[in-house]
Amino acid sequence: MHTVVAIKQVPDTTNVRINPETGTLIREGVPAIINPYDLHAVELAVRLKEHFGGKVTVITMGPPKAAEALIECVEQGADRCILITDRKFAAADTLATSYVLARAIEALQEEGPIDLYLFGLQAIDGDTAQVGPGVATRLNVPLISYALHIESIDPEARVAVVHRKTERGIEVLRTRLPALLTVLKEIAPVQRAPLPNLIRAARYKPEVWSSTDPVPFDQDQIGIRGSPTVVGRAYTPAPRQAGDIIRVSELGLQECVKRALQNVQASGAVDLASIVDAKRPTDGNGGEHS
């Protein structure tokens, strides 16, 4: 069974800062990590390999530094890792990114059949959840998003039964293979890497693909040229003050209510006077009851 996993290296969002003049992320000095959802996609692929046999291929589009993320995937158990990197890929939106990943997967398909495509639900730096569905559309394969559990896979019959999470509960879907899943973290808790994987990862060098070699990408569909959307502005929200704690046990109920109303009025969030006026009873002719 051959599973292809797409991952992304993202800035650690706990350390993200924004340039106030340009409105862009300041990436210098910010630690980079594998997108957390993607770690679980890799873990799932490795477990499927252990159960059915086969191999796991991991691909990513990013700067040269993203090779570090691929090495971590080898530690988890990936067999082959491919870094798609070129300055021409810079500033890609989700449309351009999905094109590059789909085109790379098509090149892998020429080497042999692929049974399953796995993506993390979404990247924590963009939160769009658009790339996985975009790749599924380009590859013309079934898409199951919010995948929570794989009940069964029959590689010979080329079918799988997958549970997906929805707002109304759990759906159980039967799909033909190959299919593309965007997965939740619950689908496969990440395990500690075994020593043989760590030794292999220490010597492993990911394959590097450019915008022209070994796969010719359409230059009009990559990077900023292939991106119809741009970030208009990014900014740091104004800091929020800590809330006041008013304890009934210390002040009594009446004083607590009075203090709370004073705080609300002082914040300007609500005009209490207008609320009081709106709720005053009338005599039915527009006048107020005395």
Q: Give the % helix.
A: 25-40%
CA radius of gyration is 26 Å
What is the architecture of the largest domain at the second tier of CATH?
Answer: 3-Layer(aba) Sandwich
Which structural class fits the helix and strand makeup? Answer: alpha/beta
Query: What is the 3D form?
Result: globular
Give the overall average pLDDT: 90
Q: From the 3D structure, determine the CATH topology of the largest domain.
A: Rossmann fold
- Strands of the widest sheet, in order across it, are 11-10-9-12-8-1-6-7-13
What's the SSE pattern? EEEEEHEHEHEHEEEEHEHHH
| First-last Cα distance | 82 Å
User: In terms of per-residue confidence, which ranges show pLDDT below 50 for 5 or more consecutive residues?
Assistant: none
Strand content: 15-25%
Q: How many helix segments?
A: 8
Number of domains as seen in the coordinates: 2
Helix and strand topology:
Layout: E1 2-6, E2 9-11, E3 17-18, E4 25-26, E5 32-34, H1 36-52, E6 55-61, H2 67-76, E7 80-84, H3 94-109, E8 116-120, H4 131-139, E9 143-154, E10 159-166, E11 169-176, E12 179-183, H5 195-203, E13 207-209, H6 248-251, H7 253-267, H8 272-279
Parallel strand pairs: 1-6, 1-8, 6-7, 7-13, 8-12, 9-12
Antiparallel strand pairs: 2-5, 3-4, 9-10, 10-11
Helix pairs in contact: 2-5, 3-4
Give a description of the structure.
This protein is α/β, with parallel strands linked by helices and 290 residues long. It has 2 domains: 2-226, HUPs (Rossmann fold, 3-Layer(aba) Sandwich); 242-290, no CATH class. It is 30% helix and 23% strand. The protein is built from 8 helices and 13 strands. It has helices at 36-52, 67-76, 94-109, 131-139, 195-203, 248-251, 253-267, 272-279; strands at residues 2-6, 9-11, 17-18, 25-26, 32-34, 55-61, 80-84, 116-120, 143-154, 159-166, 169-176, 179-183, 207-209. The strands form 3 sheets. Strands 11-10-9-12-8-1-6-7-13 form a 9-stranded mixed beta sheet, sandwiched between helices. The protein has a two-stranded antiparallel sheet with strand order 2-5. The longest helix has 17 residues, at 36-52. The chain is globular and about 75 Å long. The termini are far apart.
